[in-house]
Amino acid sequence: MKAIRAILSVAVLGVVVLGAFSQAPAQQRQQKMTLExxxxxxxxxxxxxxxxxxRIAELDRQIAxxxxxxxxxxxxxxxxxSDISGxxxxxxxxxxxxxxxxxxxxxxxxxxxxxxxxxxxxxxxxILDSSVRVYALVRGKxxxxxxxxxxxxxxxxxxxxxxxxxxxxxxEAEELSASAVRGLRSEFRIVALxxxxxxxxxxAMVDPELAIDGLVQAGERLTLSAQQAVSSGIAAxxxxxxxxxxxxxxxxxxxxxxxxxxxxxxxSGTTITVxxxxxxxxxxxxxxxxxxxxxxxxxxxxxxxxxxxEIPPQLSVLGSRIQxxxxxxxxxxxxxxxxxxxxxGLVIEWIIANVISQSNYFIYIRN
Length: 367
Fold this sequence. Notes:
With 367 residues, the chain is an alpha/beta fold. It has two domains: 66-80 and 264-365, Immunoglobulin-like (Sandwich); 104-256, Alpha-Beta Complex (2-enoyl-CoA Hydratase, Chain A, domain 1). It has eight helices and 15 strands. It has helices spanning 2-101, 117-129, 145-152, 178-194, 199-204, 226-231, 242-248, 261-264; strands at residues 105-113, 133-143, 155-158, 163-165, 223-225, 237-238, 271-276, 282-288, 294-301, 305-310, 321-328, 334-336, 340-341, 346-352, 360-365. Strands 1, 2, 3, 4, 5 and 6 form a six-stranded mixed β-sheet that branches. Strand 8 (282-288) and strand 9 form a beta hairpin. Helix 1 (2-101) crosses helix 2 (117-129) and helix 2 runs parallel beside helix 3. Mean pLDDT is 80; it is low at 1-24, 78-85, 170-174 and 260-266.
């Protein structure tokens, strides 16, 4: 029995071995086919890689375009915020100068067909709080933001052919959302009540859904002629010129001191240069006003780039103090310079490091 088992084992082994030898050519053929398939797969991968690289290059171009667009928007935002801050500073400066010099009144010579409401909302606070009387002389248009500024003054006087209110159809107010209209209507109402004016007339200047018999129907914003402004009580009177206004308010013969832009805001020629060596993009802000309470966005500096900012005159008044703030986009990291007193030819050069706390800046006066 043992011999039989041994023979059977050998026989089985032989079958297995012979079977293995008999299958070898088929396996070799199978291996050859697999290599061909691998080569085909490799070629396909190379094609996909080339397509992916082309797509990445296209995305890089799109990102570069978007960055340019963002930079353009940043410049526009910076200009708008500069205008907002500038208007507020100009009015505040005029009122401060009038108070310190003992002037009897400040007269705002208005011809403003629209403008930024944010600027007007900042500008009306010093007007409403002023201890010096403030009058508005509307020589042309006082529309929308211009109307809000005029309503904030102690009295409005309308020049020949002047109008006040929401402006003509097709002007910028039609772009306002319903929520913005509600907010502005509230603002117009508050200012009108503060000056004991008809708040419904004031609200109709910004809300086209408010109808007033004899003045405006629903679907239109109220715009008043000089005569309508007087008859509705919004304006105190019609005048041909500044002398007539001064006579009405009891200041006939008073000395008139024009406050020109170059007088009120001496330009320092301030330049801020930001070099971004951080691998991420950064946003740059100018801190100004009392204790840096006002923040104006200058723009975005992309990674490994340098941007120069010429600071507008209204933001770099001689003798004022400013700081520069940098924020890393997509992060809470930030850095700020020390306060610097604005002088003629001031230059601030800031090099933003990859570790933003290690950034360095240089301050000097350009000859």
